[in-house]
Specification:
Layout (H helix, E strand, L loop, with lengths): L7 H14 L11 H16 L2 H4 L13 H23 L2 E4 L1 H8 L8 H21 L8 E6 L7 E8 L1 H10 L7 E6 L5
Parallel strand pairs: 1-2
Antiparallel strand pairs: 2-3, 3-4
Helix pairs in contact: 4-5, 4-6
């Protein structure tokens, strides 16, 4: 097994072009044999320069750029990981609007792959969550909601979610642990 970044940009461009022409029913790999012969093999020959070496390559597998839906799934998976971590370590409940995932996937960089989304989640969610926790804006048992910033549609804000007074009294009186009605209050990353 050998891996290489040769033709990475050409492969990405071809995959994007081919995917644009595919229907939802198409499940086949979008890289066709003509592209392999016309683009990839000449690049291999130019780089490795020896036909006997190239002759030892049995198969070429292409790592294609993610689709938008795959990227959303990766962002969701990363958010779920941090949701679990926040709850396990600090009993902080984390929730988000679906549009938050769309903001996070804008950071996708084909050269860095899934790491670019992981870094964006760490930058826009985890570090802000940690900062709010360190400043006691959110504490053990807090409920936090992530949403699109009303000031900047390319950014995320974090709100501390609280019970309204009627729900607090009702839950205290009944001793219930049912999920209370929630209202987004202030941006949890801002000082009170």
């Amino acid at each position: 097994v050998m891996t290489s970044n040769l033709a990475q940009r050409e492969i990405a461009d071809e995959a994007i072009r081919a995917r644009a022409q595919m229907t939802d029913a198409d499940e086949a790999e979008p890289i066709n044999e003509n592209f392999r012969e016309r683009t990839i093999l000449p690049m291999l020959k130019q780089h490795f320069k020896r036909d006997e070496f190239i002759g030892r390559i049995n198969e070429i597998l292409f790592f294609l750029p993610f689709t938008t839906e795959q990227l959303r799934g990766l962002a969701r998976k990363e958010l779920l990981k941090w949701k679990k971590t926040a709850y396990d370590r600090h009993k902080i409940e984390l929730d988000w609007d679906k549009e938050v995932e769309d903001i996070l996937i804008k950071a996708y960089n084909i050269r860095f792959g899934v790491r670019s989304i992981q870094h964006e989640v760490e930058r826009k969610v985890v570090s802000r969550l940690a900062q709010a926790h360190e400043r006691d804006h959110i504490t053990k048992g807090s409920q936090v909601k992530l949403a699109v910033s009303p000031k900047d549609p390319n950014d995320i804000v974090m709100y501390k979610v609280e019970e309204d007074d009627d729900d607090k009294k009702k839950n205290e009186k009944e001793g219930t642990k049912e999920a209370p009605k929630k209202e987004a209050t202030k941006d949890a990353t801002q000082k009170a």
